[in-house]
Amino acid sequence: MTPFKRLNSTTVVLTERNIDTDQIVPARFLTTTNRRGLGQAAFADWRFDKHGQVREDCPLNARQAETSEVLVAGENFGCGSSREHAVWALLQFGFRVVISSRIADIFRANALRNGLLAIEVDADTHAWLLDNPGAGVTVDVVQARLRLPDGRDIEFELDPFARTCLIEGVDALGYLLGQEQAIAGFEQGAREAA
Prior knowledge:
Helix content is 34%, strand content 16%. The protein has helices at residues 21-24, 44-47, 84-93, 105-113, 123-131, 160-168, 172-177, 180-193, and strands at 6-14, 70-73, 97-100, 117-120, 136-140, 145-147, 153-155. It starts with 5 loop residues before the first strand and ends with a helix. 29% of the residues are buried. It is an alpha/beta fold. The protein has 8 helices and 7 strands; from the N terminus they run βααβαβαβαβββααα. It has one domain (6-169): Aconitase, domain 4. The protein has a 7-stranded mixed β-sheet.
């Protein structure tokens, strides 16, 4: 994972509510445990028609979406089955952040474990983001703050351990492996005390 402290990006907006994990990555793409290539599967049924042709009306196919790292989605994003592939697909597509007024708990946990920041914001902030696609925002992981172009600075909740992992660019196992020297010192002290 890449360390993530601060991000400046425009937004891509999907106004639909209740976007579930099967819409994020359809079940036919779940035949792999490898993350590579899943970006193409992200929202495949929204981005392509039944003949595989690009749907021009999908915001994810807009030129701006190629460089946007922040997805703003309607309420209740990531509901449905627990599907880590959905998080992998979003990351491979290029998103680092998902913002909504409500994000399913299991999806949010999977996201944070894999380096995707899932932010819940209040209804007014959410409405503003939905109404202003392409807005330039700043996400500060260290301060757990979202800055809008109108100057508003919104604090969001972020578990301290998840924050540490995002900032250091590690998952939980990577974090533990990084503590190897401290663990060895503790074990040595315990042996000497015994």
